[in-house]
Design brief:
The complex is a heterodimer of chains A (about 80) and B (about 220).
Chain A: E1 2-9, H1 16-27, E2 39-45, H2 51-66, E3 72-78
Antiparallel strand pairs in A: 1-2, 1-3
Chain B: E1 3-8, H1 15-26, E2 29-34, E3 46-49, H2 69-79, E4 83-87, H3 89-96, E5 103-105, E6 113-121, E7 137-144, E8 148-150, H4 153-161, E9 165-169, E10 181-185, E11 191-194, H5 210-220
Parallel strand pairs in B: 1-2, 1-3, 3-4, 4-11
Antiparallel strand pairs in B: 5-8, 6-7, 6-9, 9-10, 10-11
Classes of the chains: A alpha+beta (about 80), B alpha/beta (about 220).
Chain lengths: ~80, ~220
C-alpha cells in the first residue's frame, strides 16, 4: 500500500510563500484567485494490507517527524 | 576549567565560529561532538547547538537534526540542569526537539537577511544574560532565512508572563517574529534559543563584542 501524508501550514499561520504565489497568479491575469497555500506531500510504501494500522502508523510518523504540529496540520491518505 | 561542547551536525556551518567564540570569550575548553555520538563529554557545563543548515534544512529547518542520536543526550543533560544554547539553526533544532516552545517560520519577506541588529535584553536575570544587567540594548549579527518566531497567542502570553522572552528586536523586526521575539529560554531557564549570533559578535573587530557576555554569563555559574 502507498501512504501519503499531506502537510500544510495551519490556517492561523501566515503562509508567505502562498502569498507570493498568489501575487504572481494575479499578475498573470487570474485576479480572483484567493487563499493560495503551499504544502507538501510525503509518500511512502507500507507493507501488509491492514489499512487501519497503516493509517495509525502514518499518523504517529506525522506527529513525531513529518509535520510540526505547532505550525502545521496534516492529512493521511492510504491507498 | 569550565568545559563546553559544540554539537556538529551535517550542514552545520557555525560550529567552528562557536568553538572559537566560547574559547576566546571564556577560556573554557571546547569539545566538538559529532551528531552521531551517543554520549557527551563528561562534566560539560555548556552545550552549544550552532548555526548552519543541518541536513540541508530538509523537511523543516532543524527537523532532522532534532532526531539525531546526540540530541537524546542533550535532552538528558538539559534535564540535569546543564546550560544549552541554540543559535540560529540551533534555535530551530531546540524548537523541533520540543525543548523550547514555538517554531521558526520563513521570514515574512521571504529573504535571507544578514546584518547587524539592535536587540533589547528583556530579561537580564537568566543564567545566559546576567552579564547584561543594567544594559538594555545590545548589538549582534543575524543571518537567517527562517527566523520568524511563531507560537500561538496563549503560548506567547505564557512565555512573556514567565519572563521567558530574553531578547527582542529593538529598532526593527527583520523577519516578522511575533512580538519581536529574538530569543527565549525554557521554563527552567537553562535552555536558550536565539536567532542572533553571539558567535559572530564576540569581539570588537567583528563590530560588536556583546555576544561574549552571553557565553561568559552561561559559564559564570559553572
Amino acid at each position: 500500500m502507498k501512504a501519503k501524508v499531506h502537510v500544510y501550514l495551519k490556517p492561523c499561520v501566515l503562509d508567505v510563500q502562498g502569498k507570493a504565489i498568489e501575487g504572481a497568479l494575479h499578475g498573470l491575469g487570474w485576479g480572483d484567485v484567493a487563499n493560495v497555500r503551499v504544502g507538501k506531500t510525503i509518500e511512502f510504501d507500507v507493507p501488509g494490507s491492514d489499512k487501519a494500522k497503516a493509517e495509525a502508523d502514518a499518523k504517529v510518523m506525522a506527529e513525531k517527524l513529518l509535520a510540526n504540529t505547532v505550525i502545521e496540520s496534516f492529512r493521511v491518505e492510504i491507498a | 576549567m569550565t568545559k563546553a561542547a559544540v554539537v556538529v551536525f551535517p550542514g552545520s556551518n557555525c560550529d567552528r565560529d562557536c568553538a572559537v567564540a566560547v574559547e576566546r570569550s571564556t577560556g573554557a575548553s571546547v569539545d566538538m561532538v559529532w551528531h552521531q555520538e551517543t554520549a557527551l563529554p563528561s562534566g560539560v557545563d555548556l552545550i552549544v547547538l550552532p548555526g548552519g543548515f543541518s541536513y540541508g534544512d530538509y523537511l523543516r529547518c532543524g527537523a532532522m537534526a532534532a532526531q539525531s542520536p546526540v540530541m537524546r543526550e542533550v535532552v538528558k543533560a538539559a534535564e540535569a540542569g546543564v546550560a544549552v544554547v541554540g543559535i540560529c539553526n540551533g534555535f530551530q533544532i531546540l524548537c523541533e526537539a520540543g525543548m523550547l516552545p514555538g517554531a521558526l517560520l520563513r521570514n515574512a519577506k521571504l529573504k535571507y537577511i544578514c546584518k547587524q541588529i539592535d536587540l533589547d535584553v528583556t530579561n537580564a536575570q537568566t543564567r545566559f544574560t546576567s552579564g547584561y544587567a543594567g544594559r538594555r540594548n545590545v548589538r549582534m549579527t543575524i543571518g537567517n532565512g527562517e527566523g520568524n518566531f511563531f507560537a500561538d497567542e496563549a503560548t506567547l502570553d505564557r512565555i512573556e508572563g514567565e519572563g521567558q522572552v530574553v531578547f527582542r528586536y529593538a529598532q526593527e523586526n527583520p523577519n516578522g517574529s511575533l512580538r519581536n521575539i529574538a530569543g527565549i529560554v525554557n521554563t527552567r531557564g537553562n535552555v536558550l534559543g536565539l536567532m542572533p549570533h553571539p558567535d559572530r559578535s564576540f569581539e570588537a573587530e567583528l563590530g560588536s563584542a556583546d555576544g561574549a557576555v552571553l557565553f561568559q554569563s552561561a559559564l559564570a555559574s559553572a
